[in-house]
Specification:
single chain, about 260 residues, alpha/beta, 7 helices, about 30% helix, globular
Length: about 260
């Protein structure tokens, strides 16, 4: 898959194994630009060891990690044996989950599988993803990914294309949510964006109510206009009280299973 990259649904076909950079900027190396223990995730994940892997196939204008997360080589290069030892140490110190994010961690499938293979014991690996991977990636992660935290960002293809530069968003992400939820526990997050209740939040919430009623749903209302969002007429502000209240009311009405 690295020799003709098909780790995400862009299926660019670049030979990453030869060091040829893909459109996401990644070759065959994995770099980590930040690590820390978090107590600010959903309670079932805590404490969570956050491991940020560089490189992403999205370019969300409001990305709170941008532009650092888009760089393929910032921080230190990940060596699978060293990473496995680091993760084991953190688990021994009380980490409940190893939270792989970025960037987009599924672009580093080869490294994740190597880390899992060399670990002395199974690791509580959590894939914190935009869910734009190919079905082959999900299948290869079966038995390796102990959990998914899925970022269901957009409710329509137009917003995904305009804000993140992504095509076929709804088709790909909804397919992957269904597939991954059959293989591992999942939390689906949606970051409520100002001015996007009708086009993004409501379709996401209604799709969840119809298709993934047993999956935990996390409505995130802490949006801030980061990176390039300030130049956007709608994304360049914070949420209003009315937007938050309307979103919360729909979650209650639909009976979505809220994460704690």
């Amino acid at each position: 898959m690295l020799r003709s990259c098909r780790l995400c649904e862009k299926r660019c076909g670049v030979d990453r194994a030869a060091g040829e950079p893909a459109p996401c900027g990644l070759g065959d190396q994995t770099w980590c630009f930040k690590r820390h223990v978090s107590y600010a995730e959903e309670i079932d994940l805590l404490p969570s060891y956050m491991v940020y892997l560089g490189g992403c196939n999205f370019r969300c204008r409001f990305c709170v990690q941008g532009p650092t997360c888009f760089a393929p080589r910032v921080g230190h290069r990940v060596q699978p044996t060293d990473a496995a030892l680091d993760f084991e140490r953190m688990v021994a110190r009380g980490a409940r989950t190893i939270n792989l994010l970025g960037g987009e961690p599924s672009l580093h499938l080869h490294t994740i599988l190597e880390i899992a293979a060399v670990a002395a014991e199974p690791l509580p690996l959590l894939i914190n993803s935009n869910m734009y991977m190919t079905p082959e990636v999900i299948d290869l992660l079966e038995g390796v990914a102990g959990m998914y935290v899925a970022d269901f960002k957009f409710g329509c293809d137009g917003c995904a294309r305009d804000i993140a530069g992504i095509d076929r968003y709804m088709e790909v992400v909804t397919r992957n949510l269904l597939r991954a939820s059959e293989q591992a526990p999942m939390i689906v997050r949606h970051l409520l964006m100002p001015g996007h209740l009708e086009c993004c939040f409501k379709p996401v919430a209604r799709w969840m109510a119809e298709h993934l009623t047993d999956v935990q749903f996390s409505l995130m209302t802490g949006y801030v206009p980061a990176w390039r969002a300030c130049s956007d007429e709608r994304l360049g502000r914070t949420l209003t009280t009315e937007e938050c209240e309307e979103a919360e009311a729909l979650v209650t009405t639909l009976g979505l299973r809220r994460s704690s």
